[in-house]
Amino acid sequence: MKKTFGGPAIVLDRSDINTDEIIPAKYLTEVTKEALKPYCLEDLKLEGFDANGEVLKKARVVVTRENFGCGSSREHAPWVFEVNDIHTVIAESYARIFRQNMFNCGMLAIELPKSDIDALMLEKDANGAIDIQVQLQEQKVVAKGNGQEMSFVFEISPFDKALVEAGGWVEYADARY
Amino acid sequence: MGRTTAEKIFAAHLRDEPFPGTKVLDLDRVLCHEITTPVAIADLEWRGKDRVYDNTKIKAVIDHVTPAKDSKTALQAKILRDWSRRHDIKDFFDVGRNGVCHALFPEKGYIRPGFTAIMGDSHTCTHGAFGAFAAGVGTTDLEVGILKGVCAFREPKTIRINLTGNLQPGVYAKDVILFVIGELGVNGATDRVLEFHGPVVEAMSMDARMTLCNMAIEAGGTCGICQPDMVTVDYLWPFIEDEFANKEAALEEYSQWCADADADYDKILEYDVTSLVPHVTFGYKPDCVKPASEMSETKIDQVYIGTCTNGRIEDLRQAAEVLQGRKIADSLRGIVSPATPKIFQEALSEGLIQIFMDAGFCVTNPTCGACLGMSNGVLAEGEACASTSNRNFNGRMGKGGTVHLMSPATAAATAITGVITDARSL
């Protein structure tokens, strides 16, 4: 199923956030995605972050730093975002498996350079909140804080774009192989 | 221009290139365990596509939590078990015959030079020790692998790592890979293959090569790859002797997967390991490493020897050599988990289990268990574990617990003293 992208963002200002922090291994005994919902980012080690807070509850986008999603291959990490309606992650870089898992689920793992992530985080600091719209065709991220609008162009491989448009890798592969 | 091992394997398995740079490969092996496969099975059923592309190429094992610890893990095992029976997957390993996937599948001879393999497990990179391309993937990739026998990759660049000199006694493959990860950093090899070369690798057993390749992912690497040679052939010989007239013929066949001398590398790194000392991790990332001797103030509550990194027979021998005739410190508990039933039996017949038990270790059945804080030795808040596993993330072995990664010899020495200890100082 095709996803919608964008909305209020939560900022996670740290590199190397791993999949154990996104969804601890003790919840890997669940056999449905929905069951993961209450445990999003439960073990994240980050000052000021509240896994039970309103900011995370309202978030539809995650903005973060380098090597996001490193560690385990568990697709439970993208799934816990998916069932919490977070379909977009914007980071400086990703671990390979997490990035592929996002696109395989028909979701977006957008890469922006450090200067753009800095600007997004500054805007968030100034306003306390930031709203992000994603224009996939134009490959553009538009961020609105307190009136000011910023826009950033991102690169996405044609394959990853095709996965998002198909709704995921199963749909794409089933139609093709 | 010559080609790397990964480039040769990609060329030989290319099914499709839907867009430049995206390669869809045919898979020789799709490996499954009970944590990441059940959701793929459920999705295939929901889609009305409960099929498998080739039940001889799919291998399955219950390994992460086994025997089941509660109703949820019992259900995961049952889903995998029922599915394996339904599709007549002969190579399914249930309780009693099961072991840690990345030790069990190589031991059965399932991975050969030049193969492609995926598994819903990040440490699938281990199998590159055989000169194969093996990558950890998520459940969706696994699902498509099960159904169609293909997987898509951005063709990775290769970092060549030349290991020269001689490892000193008491310094092992684990120390080498911890040191290399410290040099590369946790994302230094993202979208890269690590290709290991040099006399140090050539002198390593398959067990040691698997330890080396197992932790490629901790530097972000897609796969760790060793060059197939006579050590590889000797290991595989019981499984391939009907396919070749002699070992030399097998070696000749497998050598086609060795990198060309003029292959194009992203980077070439050379490390002389002659002066390398036993290394351990501190902090919460696997690239935070330092010599064990500099960590001797660190008190430990639990020692864990096992896992897909260091639960093989050589690892148990190295630990037992340190433990022989000694007792572990009263201040800690020791747990050893041989990675497969075969390894367990070898350890029994060699007297290693006796040494572990005499020293005061608890011996558990083969399982991933404590490595990821699921069972068989989970830490309490504030506790520290000296572990032969591969990840020291915050809370990895239990919420609020700390993990220090090290070799089996260092872990054994630490068990004796109660603080992190270089085994050579005992």
Q: What gap, in angstroms, lies between the N and C termini of chain B?
A: 51 Å
Strand order of the largest sheet of chain B: 5-4-3-6-7
Alpha-carbon Rg of chain A, integer: 15 Å
* Overall geometry of chain B: globular
So how many helices of chain A? Answer: 7
Mean pLDDT figure of chain A: 94
- Helix/strand-derived category of chain B reads alpha/beta
Strand elements of chain A, count: 7
Number of strands of chain B: 19
Question: CATH homologous superfamily of the largest domain in chain B - what is it?
Answer: Aconitase, domain 3
CATH topology of chain A: Aconitase, domain 4
Largest sheet geometry of chain B: 5 strands, parallel
**Ends apart, CA distance between termini of chain A:** 19 Å
Helix content range of the residues of chain A, please? Answer: 25-40%
**CATH architecture classification of chain A:** Alpha-Beta Barrel
Q: What is the topology, as strand order, of the major beta sheet of chain A?
A: 4-3-2-1-5-6-7
Give the count of structural domains of chain A: 1
Binned strand content of chain B? 15-25%
Fold-level CATH name of the largest domain in chain B? Aconitase, domain 3
- Helix % of chain B is 25-40%
Characterize the overall form of chain A: globular
What descriptors fit this protein?
heterodimer, A: 177 residues, alpha/beta, Aconitase, domain 4, seven-stranded mixed beta sheet, 7 helices, 19% strand, B: 426 residues, Aconitase, domain 3, 2 domains, five-stranded parallel beta sheet, 15 helices, 19 strands, 33% helix
Question: What layout of secondary structure does this protein have?
Answer:
The complex is a heterodimer of chains A (177) and B (426).
Chain A: E1 7-12, H1 19-22, H2 54-58, E2 61-64, H3 76-82, E3 88-91, H4 96-104, E4 108-111, H5 114-127, E5 131-135, E6 140-144, E7 149-153, H6 158-166, H7 169-176
Parallel strand pairs in A: 1-2, 2-3, 3-4
Antiparallel strand pairs in A: 1-5, 5-6, 6-7
Chain B: H1 5-13, E1 14-19, E2 22-26, E3 29-33, H2 37-46, E4 58-61, H3 71-86, E5 92-93, H4 101-107, E6 116-119, E7 133-136, H5 139-148, E8 150-154, E9 157-164, H6 173-184, E10 192-197, H7 199-202, H8 206-214, E11 223-226, H9 230-240, H10 247-255, E12 267-272, E13 279-281, E14 289-291, E15 302-306, H11 307-310, H12 313-323, E16 333-337, H13 341-349, H14 352-359, E17 361-363, E18 384-387, E19 402-405, H15 408-417
Parallel strand pairs in B: 3-4, 3-6, 4-5, 6-7, 9-10, 9-12, 10-11, 15-16, 15-18, 16-17, 18-19
Antiparallel strand pairs in B: 1-2, 2-8, 13-14
